[in-house]
Design a protein that fits this description.
With about 120 residues, the protein is mostly beta strands. The chain is built from no helices and eleven strands. The relative contact order is 0.32.
């Protein structure tokens, strides 16, 4: 069992920055990737970024590459998403997820999810 809690969402203007945090607890030894996904109203939940739990491997969606950075602090069991140069198209509920190593860019790779945190970017 793994528990995840996101925080840091809010309302910002285009061009601003936000940092999201994901606190993990429980039995995390079987977690090989941590990911961030987002879901806008009327759209499917989409991949944003993922990071290996014990290597430096990172993946980013093309839509956020160069603007978003994922990082982790294993000692504190935290995962971060630094979001810069935010655009209205980034508006969504952002979810933290914990899962395996086989398909880290896919939703079904992640059995554990947080409750989500709302990010709203005004133009």
């Amino acid at each position: 069992q793994v528990q995840l809690v996101e925080s840091g969402g809010g309302l910002v203007q285009a061009g601003d920055s936000l940092r999201l945090s994901c606190a993990t607890s429980g039995r995390t030894s079987s977690t090989y990737f941590m990911g961030w996904f987002r879901q806008a109203p009327g759209k499917e939940r989409e991949f944003v970024t993922a990071i290996s739990s014990n290597t430096d491997a990172r993946f980013y969606a093309d839509s956020v590459k160069g603007r978003f950075t994922i990082s982790r602090d294993n000692a504190r069991k935290l995962v971060y998403l630094q979001m810069n140069s935010l655009e209205p198209e980034d508006t969504a509920v952002y979810y933290c997820a914990a899962g395996g190593a086989t398909r880290p860019l896919m939703r079904d790779n992640y059995p554990y999810w947080g409750q989500g945190t709302q990010v709203t970017v005004s133009s």
